[in-house]
Write a structure and sequence with these properties.
Ribosomal Protein S8, Chain: A, domain 1, 3-stranded antiparallel β-sheet, 12 helices, 6 strands, alpha+beta, 213 residues
Length: 213
Amino acid sequence: MASTEATSMEEEKTVPPKPRFEPLKAHEMSEGGVQFRKVNVPAHRFTPLKKSWMEIYTPVYEQMKVDIRMNLKARKVEMKTKPDTPDVGNLQKCADFVHAFMLGFDPMDAIALLRLDDLYVETFEIKDVKTLRGEHLSRAIGRLSGKGGKTKFAIENSTRTRIVIADTKIHILGSFLNIKVARDSLCSLILGSPAGKVYSKLRAVSARLAEKF
């Protein structure tokens, strides 16, 4: 018995440690080539982009080490990797961050896409849930926002997401589970559920989510 234990201890000593590799830099991943991303600027987001340019430029260039510029002729925000870009994934994160801003998210909310890995943006349209026209569509959009945006803020705060309602399109920024809860609440409102019923369901679901974490 003692000899078996001694043998196992010797084997443990002889097992070499796991190798640790440094993450590949962006220029190494692309074999020295530069990688690019382009994000279209819709006409209605051109003025907000000019106002918030430094809020977008600073984290992308200084923190993520990615070159960024505005191409006025093509009306696109262009990004490319630099030799000192620490990770090739930074370029895609920056593209997602700029794209989220173009969808209507505040830069302070969209910046979470740069800092956290499990966040993404999901988009769906009201007609995907229910075909509504005219006044019925206007009332559905009104139900989603609530008086002074009260309903939208309640869903955002309960699910730890950010929601943008742009005409008939709805964009949700958050983690997978939280987006699902927020989307279910918004779909219930589109289908005609009263806000009070949605609030009570939200409270129950958010309490369950809190227990999980």
